[in-house]
Amino acid sequence: MGTCITAVANQPPSKPTAAATSAPTAAPAPAKATTAPVAEATTTPAPVAKATPVPAPAGPTLTNQQRNAAASAKQYLAITGFSRQGLIDQLSSSAGSGYPVQDATIAVDSLNVDWNAEAVQSAKEYLKVSPFSCTGLIEQLDSPAGSQYTVAQATYGAQQAGAC
């Protein structure tokens, strides 16, 4: 086997020596051949990587009752603006949907809700019914007897609704 390796090693030097007279013609061909495979190798992996979708991590699994509470929450949100706490109270109230507080809380927290946008909607609804000062509207939106938004959400809502 060592003889075969030596014979192969001896052959490449004799080929360049024979090609030395035609070296100017042979030099451009290897450069083009080297460039083409590199471009093909770079192009091939990119589509494969893009074609393989990565699934988003699954959130917590909801019970049937929690899924129903989430569906009810979406319906309430489609009708009017709610704070997080106001929506939980509505879902868990015997005068509302009557879900257990824990299920209502899990259901509401499973939704992707922009509470600032909800505060703006609530503020606009209050202003349609009655004029409010900036401070009065913030207090109404923030009050435990009112909409129960956070102070930051209530302030944002009042400002965006034009009361401030």
Quick summary:
This protein has 164 residues and is mostly helical. The chain has 10 helices and no strands.
Describe this structure in words.
The chain has about 160 residues and is mainly alpha-helical. It has a domain of about 100 residues. It has ten helices and no strands.
Features of the shown structure:
elongated, single chain, mainly alpha, 164 residues, 70% helix
The mean pLDDT is 78
Stretches where pLDDT falls below 50 for ≥5 residues?
1-27, 38-57
Q: What helical percentage do the residues reach? A: over 70%
User: Beta-strand level of the residues, as a percent range?
Assistant: under 5%
In DSSP terms (H or I, runs of 4 or more residues), the helix count works out at 10
Round the Cα radius of gyration to an integer and report it: 35 Å
**How would you characterize the largest beta sheet?**
none
Can you write the helix and strand succession as a string? HHHHHHHHHH
Number of strands: 0
The general outline is elongated
Structural class: mainly alpha
Distance between the termini: 91 Å
Helix-strand blueprint:
Layout: H1 2-19, H2 23-26, H3 28-43, H4 45-51, H5 64-79, H6 84-92, H7 101-110, H8 115-129, H9 134-142, H10 151-161
Helix pairs in contact: 5-7, 6-7, 8-10, 9-10
